[in-house]
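Changelog-adjacent note: as of this version, every example in the card shows the full chain rather than a window. The one below runs 113 residues end to end.
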Amino acid sequence: MDRPTIDHAQLTQAIGDAIVVADSHGTIVLWNPAATRIFGFSEAEAIGQPLELITPERHRHRHNEGYARTVATGVTRYGTRLLQVPALHKDGHRLSIAFTVALLTAADGSVTG
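Full-length structure tokens:
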């Protein structure tokens, strides 16, 4: 039986969970409609912004250190664990979100996102 062709862009747009992808510098490069619904920022407002856009100020230093360490080493201690953390909505109210971490890598194994 032939496997159906999956349009990944269509899936990203249609899925009900937020998909937020940041590059190796922590800059948002992908933001789907569910992310807009959850965080309040449009795709145009989010793309090109640092992940700090949705990270509460008191957590930014720790987040940035962990992000840089993960990019440098290619190792995350979170794997597929569901993490529950605070986040920020565009209007400033705090959210409680659950997410997983996935590393995107280049052919040489370096972390790209």
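Structural remarks: The longest strand covers residues 83-88.
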